[in-house]
């Protein structure tokens, strides 16, 4: 048994050291290792000398070695074409080459790009902000009071070395960054990753993606908000999709509303995704709270605005029927391949 282990080790080293660079060498390799009188055959024969209680282990080892040799031989197949100076003129260079597999865009990027480009056509500019934020931009400036439950450690990831930093829990923090640096009129769309301390399951993840919108100017009304979002839904999902607004609450908007669209998975017949209601929530929205405007020195008597924030995963789920949030971050090529060709 000992000598068998040693032999296999030496053979592996020998194979690794062998340089195979042309078709003749490939054939030599085959005869030497895999031929009827080859080394593999003969070493297999040594099973006879192995003690009965070691046969299982030895068998496994020999099998592994066999696979090793076969794989190596397989990897030499491409060398076989054997282009030489003599035959180079007989080769048909116009034949198509072997296809090179191309990558594909991640479904979340595809959907984010679609969302962003719809708003760009309406004159929104892209704005981005940091994923590591401070309390002020993520919470304080957005009118989230000190004791708001969202600030709880249970929902928010704080940076352990410096707890005044956190991972942003929503892209509304980018609203704050924009208002800090720009004067109205403001029209921005802010795509980005956000983090919440959730147990990972098919329906929840500790990070996901949002696209935030912010529009501030004179005379901006709730009707503008509705019309903008109607336009978005029609462009994204087609003209047949129904839309409804439900009153809601966010500290940074007043009034606030959540928007639902008719369930595209079951055509509103009722399914798991719409929890048998026929409707799926896709975003939160509202008129920017005067306090938020004042936090950035924007005169709330002169200016009004609307804001919205939508989940990219949710929109992707409705568009491409992805039913498990974990699929987005597992990098399973079988999943990702299905989106090849989408931009
Ligand atoms: N920030 C909110 C969320 O994460 C969404 C939202 C954005 C609501 C803008 C209103 C206005 O749920």
Task: Name the helix and strand elements from N-terminus to C-terminus, one letter apiece.
Answer: HHHHHEEHEHEEHEEEHEHH
The biggest beta sheet reads: 7 strands, mixed
Helix content: 25-40%
Kindly provide the name of the CATH class of the largest domain. Answer: Alpha Beta
How many discrete structural domains? 2
Whole-Å distance between the termini?
Answer: 58 Å
Overall shape? elongated
Within the CATH hierarchy, at the fold level, what is the topology of the largest domain?
BirA Bifunctional Protein, domain 2
Q: Which structural category do the helix and sheet elements fall into?
A: alpha+beta
How large, in whole angstroms, is the Cα Rg? 31 Å
Total helix count?
11
CATH architecture of the largest domain: 2-Layer Sandwich
CATH superfamily of the largest domain: Bira Bifunctional Protein, Domain 2
Share of residues in strands: 15-25%
Number of strands: 9
What ligand molecules are bound, each kind once? phenylalanine
The pLDDT mean sits at 93
Q: Looking across the biggest beta sheet, what order are the strands in?
A: 1-4-5-9-8-7-6
Weakly predicted, low-confidence segments: none
């Amino acid at each position: 048994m000992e000598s068998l282990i040693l032999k296999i080790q030496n053979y592996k080293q020998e194979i690794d050291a062998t340089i195979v660079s042309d078709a003749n060498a490939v054939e030599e390799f085959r005869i030497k290792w895999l031929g009827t009188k080859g080394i593999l055959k003969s070493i297999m024969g040594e099973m006879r000398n192995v003690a009965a209680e070691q046969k299982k282990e030895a068998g496994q080892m020999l099998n592994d070695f066999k696979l090793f040799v076969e794989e190596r031989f397989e990897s030499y197949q491409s060398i076989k074409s054997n282009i030489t100076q003599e035959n180079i003129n007989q080769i048909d260079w116009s034949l198509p080459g072997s296809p090179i597999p191309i990558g594909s865009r991640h479904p979340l990027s595809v959907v984010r790009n679609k969302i962003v480009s719809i708003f760009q056509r309406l004159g929104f500019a892209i704005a981005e902000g940091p994923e590591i934020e401070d309390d002020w931009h993520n919470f304080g400036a957005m009118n989230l009071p000190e004791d708001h439950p969202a600030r709880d450690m249970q929902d928010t990831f704080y940076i352990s070395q410096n707890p005044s930093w956190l991972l942003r829990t929503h892209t509304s923090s980018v609203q704050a960054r924009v208002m800090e640096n720009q004067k109205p009129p403001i029209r921005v769309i802010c795509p980005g990753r956000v983090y919440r301390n959730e147990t990972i399951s098919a329906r929840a993840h500790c990070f996901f993606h949002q696209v935030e919108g912010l529009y501030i100017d004179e005379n901006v009304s709730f009707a503008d908000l509705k019309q903008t979002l109607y336009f978005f839904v029609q462009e994204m999902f087609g003209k047949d999709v129904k839309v409804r607004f439900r009153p809601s609450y966010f500290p940074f908007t007043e009034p606030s509303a959540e928007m639902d669209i008719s369930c595209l998975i079951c055509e509103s017949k009722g399914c798991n995704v719409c929890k048998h209601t026929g409707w799926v929530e896709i975003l939160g929205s509202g008129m920017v709270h005067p306090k938020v405007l004042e936090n950035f020195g924007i005169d709330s008597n002169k200016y009004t605005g609307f804001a919205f924030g939508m989940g990219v995963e949710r929109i992707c789920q409705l568009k491409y029927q992805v039913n498990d949030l974990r699929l987005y971050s597992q990098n399973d090529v079988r999943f990702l391949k299905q989106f090849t060709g989408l931009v």
